[in-house]
Specification:
3 helices; mainly alpha; elongated; 105 residues
């Protein structure tokens, strides 16, 4: 059995960063809209960007949670599709990946 403690720490650190980013995005989206129409239009465009960033962060957070669950189950490093081992190089580059190089294509 491989010791994935370093990968687990990397995932937990990134998870904490994402949770902080999502909170900041939510706080900014909750701000009172400006009264001026032109400022509101500009603010809405900014909100759309923030919403997109938040969705991206939420998706990455789900991937990380899945990887942490696989570590806890003892299946981290195994491809969820074919069951083959995921290379340590691939896991170093993409620590939350559930797929080996072949199945990711």
């Amino acid at each position: 059995m491989t010791d994935w403690s370093q990968q687990e720490q990397i995932l937990k650190t990134r998870r904490a960063e994402l949770v902080g980013e999502i909170r900041q995005i939510e706080d900014q989206l909750d701000d009172e809209p400006p009264k001026d129409w032109e400022d509101r239009a500009s603010e809405r465009q900014g909100d759309e960007v923030l919403e997109s960033l938040g969705a991206h962060d939420a998706a990455e957070l789900r991937q990380i949670d899945g990887a942490l669950a696989r570590i806890a189950e003892g299946t981290y490093g195994e491809c969820v599709q074919c069951g083959n081992s995921i290379s340590t190089e691939r896991l170093a580059a993409l620590p939350a990946t559930p797929f080996c190089k072949t199945c990711a294509i």
